[in-house]
Design a protein that fits this description.
Oligomer: single chain
Structural class: alpha/beta
Distance between the termini: 37 Å
Bound molecules: NADP nicotinamide-adenine-dinucleotide phosphate
Shape: globular
Strand order of the largest sheet: 1-11-8-7-5-6
Number of strands: 11
Strand content: 15-25%
Order of helices and strands: EHEHEHEHHHEHEHEEEEHEH
Radius of gyration: 19 Å
Length: 298
């Protein structure tokens, strides 16, 4: 039985982070300052704290300046927007990331709308969403951009390929579909109301699963040789009692003999998200300073 290739997201992300670090060094030499990323965390959600810590660490490792703002869980919307406005005006800050989710008293929509689009390195501001949909330069959400980079690295030109994106969230599914459309794929977006998901998946050369349901996509749904990007991160009980483990949205073991290539969970899409955040921050810094950046490296 043949098996598909396992796409090493960790190695791919390490390569991108290395190129970003080189770009940061060149930026510092040209401008005399480091690119700066401000990360804002409201409250004490344990998962968010882990994300913010690793984003801060990665920012510093890349040679950038990291500004962390931790606010108490009872922070009001006006106070958070006030901070965002100050960061918008701060010349040492090239990128701003407000860690989601926010506590219930704060509207995420209002906070995202308050971000200066040129510093919105997460690509969630409506202006950047519109820019992606219109084919204009802007910022693209980190996770789908990382998925696209891995797809292009493996497949080269994607034009004409059938792509299915399962999931239609603003963070992953919709921007992923826009990116694939911009690459001239024939794109289908599936969601919880879609009928005959196995049939839809079975036609696709590219499958991106961003659902949040453990091992929902079965191996025998997949067209032989297709490339599968598994965005899902699901914690399930492990083999040993009391232990948990992470699995994706795709039945990895069942899919291996069908796919041409597949990203594992963990070690696939996950590591790319922070690497692309650093990349977006470096791009923001170049735009801010009015100097061109090496598009082929990033
Ligand atoms: P989300 O906002 O919950 O969206 C999930 C999507 O899946 C929705 O569009 C939903 O459809 C669809 N869906 C639910 N059940 C379905 C079914 N039975 N068949 C087909 N579609 C179904 O989730 P998200 O934020 O996009 O995240 C998706 C997954 O990716 C999660 O596991 C998350 O942890 C992971 N993730 C990973 C990274 C990373 O690796 N760095 C980053 C972001 C997210 P409806 O719209 O119809 O409800």
């Amino acid at each position: 039985m043949t098996t598909g290739e396992i796409i090493d997201g960790k190695a791919f992300a390490a390569g991108l982070r290395g190129r970003v670090a080189q770009g940061v060094a060149a930026f510092r030499a040209a401008t005399g300052r480091a690119p700066g990323l401000a990360v804002v965390l409201v409250g004490e959600d344990p998962a968010s704290q882990v994300y913010v810590r690793s984003k801060g660490r990665a920012t510093i490792e890349a040679g950038m300046e990291s500004f962390e703002h931790r606010l108490p869980a009872d922070t009001g919307q006006a106070a958070l927007i006030d901070l965002v406005m100050r960061l918008n005006e701060d010349d040492a800050v090239d990128g701003i990331l407000v860690q989601l989710p926010l506590p219930p008293q704060i509207s995420e929509r209002a906070v995202i709308a308050a971000l200066a689009p040129r510093k919105d390195v997460d690509g969630f501001h409506p202006e950047n969403v519109g820019r992606l949909a219109s084919g204009l330069e802007g910022f693209v959400p980190c996770t789908p951009l990382g998925c696209l980079m891995m797809l292009k690295d493996r497949l080269g030109d994607l034009a004409g390929l059938d792509a299915v994106v399962i999931g239609r969230s603003n963070i992953v599914g919709k921007p992923m579909a826009q990116l694939l459309l911009a690459e001239s794929c024939t794109v289908t977006i599936a969601h919880s109301k879609s009928r005959d998901l196995p049939g839809i998946v079975g036609r696709a050369d590219i499958v991106v699963a961003a659902v949040g349901r453990p091992q929902m996509v079965k191996g025998d749904w997949i067209k032989p040789g297709a490339t599968v990007i598994d965005v899902g991160i699901n914690r399930v009980s492990g083999d040993e009692e009391g232990k948990t483990k992470l699995v994706g949205d795709v039945d990895f073991a069942g899919a291996l003999s069908h796919v041409g290539a597949i990203t594992p969970v963990p070690g696939g899409v996950g590591p790319m998200t922070i690497a692309v955040l650093l990349r977006n921050t470096l791009v923001a810094a170049h735009r801010h300073a009015g100097i061109p950046y090496d598009k082929t490296a990033l």
